[in-house]
Specification:
Family: Belongs to the CFA/CMAS family.
CATH superfamily of the largest domain: Vaccinia Virus protein VP39
Largest sheet: 7 strands, mixed
Order of helices and strands: HEEEHHEHHHHHEHEHEEHEHHEHHHE
EC number: 2.1.1.-
Pfam family, one: CMAS
Shape: elongated
Keywords: Lipid metabolism, Methyltransferase, S-adenosyl-L-methionine, Transferase
Number of strands: 11
GO molecular function, one term: methyltransferase activity
Length: 433
């Protein structure tokens, strides 16, 4: 129908994608934002930028708000960051964390944004293949922290590619917080210092027996056998880790002292160990399972034996689920809690806690160096595991570094003893390491 003379018709106002995004951020976007519709927002001279390349990327952002939607768009390549390397997006994450405060739009603004972006026709796209099932759907793999389900989620994270881990972690193949004796120390020096500190805290002596649960690629086992002459057994749920560790033991001629088994720590039947080390396992155990976890490790020790528990912790002791990105892409079923809860659980199982130490700044440095390795080996890493997986790791490592720097997460080593029946701990009057 044509308009009658003298009448006027105006189209409903519409926002571009960039305008809509800018309106959702209090104070405006801190970086240069561009979108596939040709729109842009944010400072034109910004050193860092964000480019929304596809409608699928918009659908990811709009149908899964928060870190999950951003991660899906970024991992799939539908959202790009400029001014940073995908192997180390640290600078962009810091900028966004410090300067991005989302605001709740008014009802009229929300309607305008929804109409402008045609949100009614956006449907959630299939997630990238790197994404694990949500928690509620993992029930098909068994109860949370059952042996079958733990085996599945450990495989999801650790059985990526041994070659990929070699490039990111470096020759030490240590996927836990290092210890930097000086700020200038290399990653390899820091990892060696960490394992040596654990050995000294455990008071290892030639001829003793060590159990290392969640042993990874067997670095602790090999260090203890080579440097301290102990007979060391390591167990891991990752088949690829176990195979790599066995080959490393043979390569170094340590077969008479060191062993790595593909085994759940709960299936270790041997007892009478002089020491037990747990470096990076507690995060996968589940807080509700701490009593049985510490009881099992206690029972592996002989009286007078020592336990060193090294794990990521929170700055509080309130139960809190991990964020969607970490849970779906990095550590499915992972759980963190404060050091107080860990200490309490150990004490409740009859272990005497002798020492506790927070290495939080050291983990920030460790993550920095892992990002550097990923950047230096980016092309080979992408060829090995694909760009999507490499992006997951760059994002996860850089984001974790920010968390440790800001004190949102910490790293505690808790040293405890299984005492003799008469109360003797065989622990020195003062720490001797």
């Amino acid at each position: 129908m044509s308009s009658s003379p003298g009448s006027s018709s105006t189209a409903s106002p519409r926002l571009t994608i960039a305008q809509a995004m800018d309106r959702l951020v209090r104070g405006g976007l801190p970086l240069r934002f561009t979108a596939y519709d040709g729109s842009s927002a944010g400072p034109p001279d910004a050193a860092l930028g964000m480019d929304l390349r596809t409608e699928r990327g918009l659908a990811y952002l709009m149908t899964a708000p928060g870190d999950l939607g951003m991660a899906r768009a970024y991992v799939s390549g539908d959202l790009d960051l400029s001014g940073v390397h995908p192997g180390d997006p640290y600078d962009a994450l810091v900028l966004l964390k410090d300067n991005t405060k989302f605001r709740v739009p008014t009802p009229s603004e929300a309607l305008l944004i929804a109409r402008s972006l045609e949100l009614s026709r956006l449907r959630p796209p299939p997630p990238p293949p790197q994404e694990h099932l949500p928690r509620w759907r993992r029930a098909v793999e068994g109860l949370r922290h059952s042996m079958s389900r733990d085996a599945g989620v450990i495989s999801h994270h650790y059985d990526v590619s041994n070659r990929f881990y070699e490039m990111v972690l470096g020759p030490s193949m240590a996927y836990t917080c290092a210890l930097y004796p000086t700020p200038e120390a290399t990653l390899e020096e820091a990892q060696a210092a960490k394992f040596d500190l654990v050995c000294r805290k455990l008071g290892l002596q030639p001829g003793q027996r060590l159990l290392d649960v969640g042993c990874g690629w067997g670095t602790m086992v090999r260090h203890a056998a080579r440097e301290y002459g102990v007979k060391a057994l390591g167990v891991t749920l990752s088949l690829e880790q176990a195979e790599w560790g066995k080959e490393a033991i043979d390569r170094e001629g340590l077969g008479d002292l060191a062993e790595v088994r593909h085994l759940d720590y709960r299936d270790v039947a041997e007892t009478g160990f002089d020491a037990v080390s747990s470096i990076g396992l507690t995060e996968h155990v589940g807080v509700r399972n701490y009593p049985t976890y510490f009881a099992h490790l206690r029972d592996r020790l002989k009286p007078g034996g020592r336990l060193l528990n090294h794990s990521i912790t929170r700055q509080h002791n309130t139960r809190q689920e991990t964020g969607a990105f970490i849970d779906r892409y990095v550590f499915p079923d992972g759980e963190l809690i404060g050091s107080g809860t860990i200490i309490t659980a150990a004490q409740d199982q009859g272990l005497e806690v002798q020492h506790c130490e927070n290495l939080r700044p050291h983990y920030a440095s460790t993550l920095r160096d892992w990002n550097r390795n990923l950047v230096d080996n980016w092309d080979e890493c992408v060829a090995e595991v694909g760009e999507g997986t490499a992006r997951v790791w760059g994002l996860y490592i850089a984001g974790s570094r920010v968390g440790f720097e800001r004190g949102e997460v910490e790293l505690h080593q808790v040293l405890a003893t299984r005492n003799h029946a008469d109360g003797r701990s065989d622990f020195p009057m003062r720490p001797d390491w």
